[in-house]
User: What shape does this take?
Amino acid sequence: MNLLNNLKVVYKLTIIGVMAFIATVFIGMIGYFAIRDSQAETENMYNRNTMAIYHLGRIRYNIRYMQVQACLMPYTIAPDRRQSRTDKFNAAMKTAEEQIAAFEKIIANDAELMALVKKSEGEYQKYKTNAAQLMTMSAYAEGGDDRAPMNFYENNVMPFAMTLGDDLVKIQDTLSEDAK
Assistant: This one.
């Protein structure tokens, strides 16, 4: 410490200033790297979890909308209304499939989620096929049973819709847990 006693006050202040500057730069660098890491984690959470949940919600909405159109179609008589329901059904199916593709692109690197998605895709294909078949039915066909479309729905569409809904909820719960 004797060395500092022999220095002029100006030099002592200069040394203190340089030390303070070095400490400030060091603390600033630590803060910068912490903020950069935090930003990367936030972007990952948004780009992966939040956007995946968004696409999943759109998938669920469009599948439900397809289901509504398929349920109403057999009881629709007017040709223009039947065409409108068919158009709405096809538009919802197209949107659902676009959202599925976007969802899969986001979670492509997550093997656990992809396994759940592949299982759900099989259910979706069965659901889509049966719902499309329901769209061709009419409760008012000559000599037909007016309950036949609803029986078909209850036996062939609704079970897949329920399973698919449960699968999508499991995927959403997994993503929500990851986001926490």
In short: The two ends are 53 Å apart (CA to CA). Helices lie at 2-5, 9-72, 79-106, 111-135, 148-179.
